[in-house]
Amino acid sequence: MPSIAGAGGGRLFSVNGAAAYWGSSRRRLLLLQRPLFSSLAGGGTGDDVTPHLPVVIVGAGPVGLVLSFLLTKFGIKCVVLEKNVEFTRHPRAHFINNRTMEIFRKLDGLAGDIERSQPPVDLWRKFVYCTSLSGSILDFDKIISPISVAHFSQHKLVDLLLKKLDGIGFQTCLPGDIGSSTQDLVLENKILMGHECSSVQLTDKGILIGASFNEAGRMQERKIHCGLLLGADGARSTVRELAGIHMKGQRDLQKLVSVHFRSKDLGKYLSRERPGMLFFIFNPGAIGVLVAHDLEHGEFVLQIPFYPPQQMFEDFSTKICEEIIVKLVGWEPSDVQVLDIKPWVMHAEVAEKYIGCDNRIILVGDAAHRFPPAGGFGMNTGVQDAHNLAWKLCLLQNGVASPSILQTYESERRPVAIFNTELSVENFKAAMSIPAALGLDPTVANSVHQVINSSLGSVIPRNLQKSVLEGLFSIGRAQVSDYILNEKNPLGSLRLARLRSILDEGKSLQLQFPAEDLGFRYELGELVAEDCAETTYEAEKQKHSKRSREYIPSAKAGSRLPHMLMRALSTSNEGVFSTLDLVNGDKPEFALIIAPLKVSYELARAMLKIADELKLPTKICVIWPQGSVDAKVKGSRSELAPWTNYVDVEEVPRAPVNSWWEMCQITSKSVILVRPDEHIAWRTESDRVTDADSEVRRVFSEVLCLTSRIQTLEKPLLLLLKSPSNASNSHPPSNTASYRT
C-alpha cells in the first residue's frame, strides 16, 4: 500500500509563462506565448542529474501505446515504462468497436492494417451455443460510421502499434540497452521494458518517479522527473495504488481461468461446420466459453469459471486443461497445444477519481475502470480515454488552454465509464440468461458455493469440500444432458422453448451497441452547454436501460460528429470521405462546420480571427448541397478572405436522408464547432448571434476552460509564475509528498 511520507506541499508544475486572461471589461485575451508548464515543455535544468520529461506513461498495453503515439505526434515528449520484459502473447481483448476503429483510422492507417489482418468476417460474426442455436447476425453496413467493427486479438494489435511507433522514432529497450544514463534525450521516445513504477514523489518542479529494474541479477532504481504521470498500467494498476485512488463498484463477480491454446484441427472443423467468434458450451462434463481468436490458424482462448478455495488456480494444470478442452469440444483434436494459463477476476468498478496527487497523476484505461468482458467495452473505453486526453495535453503544452482543462478529462470520461460498467453488467446478466434457461442458473451455483464456504469451510478439509462442490455441480450440469434437453422430454422442451424466446427477442448477449458506442454524449467538460438541450445524461441512461440500441445522429454539444460521406469541391480529387475526416488527425485542430450562408460566413470570419489571436489551429468546413456548381462554391474565397484555412465540400447523401443537416435534425443556419477528438464543442444558429466577436470569445473562453481558471486558479497561477523556473537543484525540497509500493 502507498504511504505518504511528507506534507503535500509540492505544486502542480513549475510555470514558465503562458498565463491567459479574459479581461472582463474589454473582453480581451492577453496571452504569453510560452509553454504553460515548463514540465510539459521538457528538458532538464542546468545541473540536473535526473532526467526531466514532460510525460511518463506507465503501461505498454494498447492504451499506453496509443497514448504515446498521439502525444509524440502532437509534439509532446514522453517515455513509457513497462514492468514486463516482453509483451504477452495471451490474446485477451479482441473486439474493436466502431468508435475505436474510427480513432484508429487516423493513427497512420492502423484501422486499415487491422481490417487486412483480421480473420474473414464470415468466420466470426456469430455467437454459437452448444444447442446449435446461433445469435443475431451483426450489422456491418457502413451507414452510421465510415468503418466497421473488427475482431483482432490484443497481442496482434500491440504488434501493429509497435510498428507505428517505430515509424515515428520510438524504440523498445531492455534495461541493459539504457544502462545508467540520466540524459533526457536518451530516455525520450523509448519504451523501457522491465521497468516498474515503484515510487512517486511530488516536487515543486513536477513529480519524481522511481522505476525499478533488474540488470544482471541485481535490482536497481532509475529516477525520472516529469510533469505528468499517466497510469495506463491495467486493472491492477500500481500507479492507482501509489496515488491512493480507490475503486467503486462490484467486486469479484466471477473468478475464471483463461486457457490460451492452439489447434488447427479444431479451427478447420469450426470453419467448416460452425464458424463463430464466441462459443458458449454447456454439457454434463464441463462448462466454458470458447473465444475463437483466429479459426484459420487455430488460436483459441477458453474461459472456465472456478470457485476457490475448493477449486484453486493451481488445480488447472496443462493436463487438466487439455481434458476440459476435449470435454467441451466433444471429440479429441490431435494437435491441442496449451500455450498459457492465467487466472483473472471479473470486476465492475470505476475509480473514484481519474486525477490525483495535485493533478500530476492521471489514470487511463483499465487503471481507471474495470468491466465485465460482456460487450467488449474495456479496451475500447480505454483507447477513447487516451484519445480524449492527448489533444488536451497538447493545448496545455502550447499555452492555449487553462490547467483546468485536465479536469474536463475526468468530467467527460468518468460518466462514460460508469455507464459502460452498468451496461457491461447488464450484458453479462443477459449472457447468463442462456444457461439459466437451460437449468444451469449461475446464481444457484454461487449460492451453493457460499453455503459450502459458510457451513463446511471450517469443519471439513478442502479436498472434501472440493468433492462436495464438484459433485453438486455435476448434478447441475446433468440438466443439459441429452436425456433431459430434448423435445420429447417435457422439461427439456420447455427449456428449449424458453431459450428460443430469449434469442428471438434479442435478450441474450449483445456485442454491438451503436447507441452507446457512437451516440454517447459528454454533458460536462470542454464544451459549451446548450440552453435548449433537453436531454440530460440521466435521460440518456433511462432511454438505454429500455434496451434501445438504435443510433440516432445528433449535433448537440458533447456528441460525436455524425458521419456522412462528402466530396471535396474545387479539386481534381473525385474521392469521397467522411465528415469525421474534416477534423485533422495529425494535429489538434478545431473545425467550424457551416452552410454557405452570409450570416454563417460572418461568424466563421470571427472564429478565424480569434483563433489566430489564440494561435489555436482552426479551419472552416463549408458543406454545400449535392450538385452545387463551381461558380457558387468559389464564393467561399471572397467571403473568408484573407484566410485560406477552409475547405468546401459537397454532400453525398444516402437515402432516406436528403442532407447532412436533415440527418442531424438541425437547419442549415446552424454552425457547429468540432473539437480535435471529433466531438462537438458548441452549436448555435448563426442568425441568433448579434455580436460575432463577443460570442466567439465567450465560446473559446468556455471551451478552453479560461473562464474557470479566472474563478479558481488565478491565485495559484500567480504563485506558480513567481516560482523559480531555472532552479538547478534536482533534489526535492522538504515540503514534498512521497508514495512508494
Automatic annotation (TrEMBL):
Gene3D superfamilies: 3.40.30.120, D-Amino Acid Oxidase, subunit A, domain 2, FAD/NAD(P)-binding domain. GO terms for molecular function: FAD binding; oxidoreductase activity, acting on paired donors, with incorporation or reduction of molecular oxygen, NAD(P)H as one donor, and incorporation of one atom of oxygen. Keywords: FAD, Flavoprotein. Residues 53-417 form the FAD-binding domain. Signal peptide: none annotated. GO terms for biological process: ubiquinone biosynthetic process. One of its GO terms (cellular component) is mitochondrion. Coiled coil: none annotated. This is FAD-binding domain-containing protein. SUPFAM superfamilies: FAD/NAD(P)-binding domain. InterPro entries: FAD-bd (IPR002938), FAD/NAD-bd_sf (IPR036188), RIFMO-like (IPR050641).
